[in-house]
Amino acid sequence: MAEDNLSSSPTAPLKSNMSSKTSSSGRDTQLDALRARQAALEATVAELLSQRTSLVNALSPTPDTQEPEDTETRAKLAVDAANTKIKSQIKQLQQYNDIKDIGTQLMGIIAEKRGCRIIEVQEEFGIIPDD
């Protein structure tokens, strides 16, 4: 029985050493992959910050207006200009939708008076039903 303990004893640590080497190399591989991912993400962040600076510079007023050089102030002004543009676009879209609704109602009235379908009136005026 003592011989069994001696013979099995050297192999048991050998298996655990191999197991720890395998898991250690797996961890190293995973750690390397994570480091590569972190480097890629840091590069992406740097690129995005560069794009942000370019956009802020493009949207900021000209230097003739004696704009402060603070990047955050310039960024805020650029965002304000963008928000103003968005509000203008929304207002124009609402006006377009109102005009389109009125046109659809008028075509409905015309179709009702003629006793035909709205699609026929739309085709007569050259309007595609999906418009």
Automatic annotation (TrEMBL):
Biased composition (Low complexity): 16-34
One GO term describing the cellular component: Swi5-Sfr1 complex
InterPro entries registered for this protein in UniProt: DNA-repair_Swi5
Keywords: DNA damage, DNA repair
Polar residues bias locations: 1-11
GO term, biological process aspect, one: meiotic joint molecule formation
A Pfam family annotated for this UniProt entry: Swi5
Keyword Plastid part of the UniProt annotation: no
Claim: DNA-binding is one of the keywords in the record: no
TM region(s), chain numbering: none
Highest rank taxon of the organism: Eukaryota
Region annotation (Disordered) ranges: 1-34
Similarity remark: Belongs to the SWI5/SAE3 family.
Protein name: Swi5-domain-containing protein
Organism taxonomic ancestry: Eukaryota, Fungi, Dikarya, Ascomycota, Pezizomycotina
